[in-house]
Design brief:
The chain has 366 residues and is α/β, with parallel strands linked by helices. The chain contains 19 helices and 10 strands.
Length: 366
């Protein structure tokens, strides 16, 4: 796997950006429009079928560096070669994406599987099913600053933590706290708007924040903090081995369109393998896909975090991309049921269908 050329982009890093601008960049900035796939790109493959199936896809959030496997699959004609004409739009969070896919606004979406499970419990007549693990690791984490004196998760006891009320890592806090050996009620939670999360930490209105590492870390760096200034406690390192975003669709759509699901998965898999092999080209694909200027340094950091901590790990190296370990998945479902306060505990087979995955040998890293 090639390494990212951070120096090449260092000059574009706006370290002195104001805190308001930092927060707005991630949470409130107008979405970089996620353009429809170019018809010209889609007919470029000599193997492409003459008639293609239209597929509407939604991201989990704004178009970001972490979405490179999707934009690369479009750029390189992987969807077209599978007979698909894929268009995509930005998302509005993992809690929102399931609703829009279930409503038929999109055919396929990507987002947090645990929010999908919660959606299914509340909407049993609109069941969603995941068919590929896009990100083997979840970005759930708690961050603090090195000068806070907090060196381990146990040091969080007695401190103020900040996050929006619906933040998934915050909702899993009781499970995390118990896992690290401190009472869940030993901290005081402060609620703020998502765009103010990092600001509260930098102004020391809170001692730590919970959130997605791919969101808060680039924002803190952009605000002037160095990597050594930021202490990150990944949930996966403290007994919560959660999976990250998955590809999912309505159960009835999957049953009616099995060839579409299989073809879509195959194309995205190629995009993911290309992203891992050449992150620089992958990032360029994302920047090209955005119709508005993007912060290259921030998107590069997001992609780098994902590649090093979320997309590739020992499980992926052993079992290949896009699959899951049923035992690990069931453990995290159990933890989610407890953390989210769900009434039922689904089985892995209730929420994930691996029958559309390419053979293992095609999913292995080179």
């Amino acid at each position: 796997m090639k390494t990212l050329g951070l120096r090449q982009f260092a000059t574009t890093l706006l370290i002195g950006a104001s805190l308001v601008a930092v927060s707005g960049c991630q949470q409130t900035a107008e979405a970089p429009s996620s353009p429809a796939a170019s018809p010209a790109q889609e007919v470029s493959s000599p193997a492409a079928p003459t008639e293609k199936k239209d597929v509407k896809f939604t991201l989990a959030w704004l178009l970001q560096g972490t979405d490179a496997p999707i934009t690369l699959a479009i750029d390189k004609g992987y969807f077209a070669a599978e007979g698909l004409n894929v268009t995509f739009e930005r998302g509005y969070g993992s809690a929102d994406t399931p609703s829009k896919v279930a409503a038929g606004q999109y055919d396929i979406g990507t987002g947090d599987i645990y929010n999908m499970i919660e959606f299914n419990e509340k909407n049993p007549d609109k069941k969603l099913v995941a068919f590929a693990v896009f990100s083997n690791g979840a970005p759930f984490a708690i961050a603090t600053l090195a000068d806070s004196g907090i060196k381990t998760p146990k040091d969080l006891a007695g401190k103020k933590l900040g996050a929006p009320a619906g933040d998934a890592p915050r909702r899993l806090w009781p499970v995390f706290a118990t896992s690290v050996g401190i009472p869940p009620d030993s901290v005081e939670w402060v609620t703020m708007e998502p765009k103010l999360r990092e600001t509260f930490l930098l102004q020391k209105q809170v001692d730590a924040i919970s959130g997605f590492v791919t969101t808060f870390k680039p924002n803190l760096v952009k605000a002037g903090k160095k990597d050594a200034d930021i202490v990150v406690f990944y949930f996966k390192d403290y007994g919560l081995p959660m999976y990250g975003n998955v590809l999912f669709a309505r159960e009835d759509f999957i049953k009616k369109n099995p060839d579409v699901i299989k073809a879509f998965t195959k194309a995205v898999l190629k995009g993911m393998k290309d992203t891992i092999a050449d992150p620089d080209a992958a990032l360029k694909s994302v920047l090209k896909a955005s119709q508005q200027p993007m912060d290259e340094a921030a998107e590069r950091m997001r992609l780098e975090i994902a590649l090093n901590n979320l997309y590739v790990n020992d499980e992926v190296k052993k079992n290949g991309l896009f699959g899951l370990d049923p035992e690990r998945m069931q453990k995290t479902i159990d933890q989610t049921v407890k953390g989210f306060g769900l009434k039922t505990t689904p089985k892995v087979t209730d929420v994930f269908d691996d029958s559309f995955l390419p053979p293992k040998e095609e999913r292995m890293l080179q």
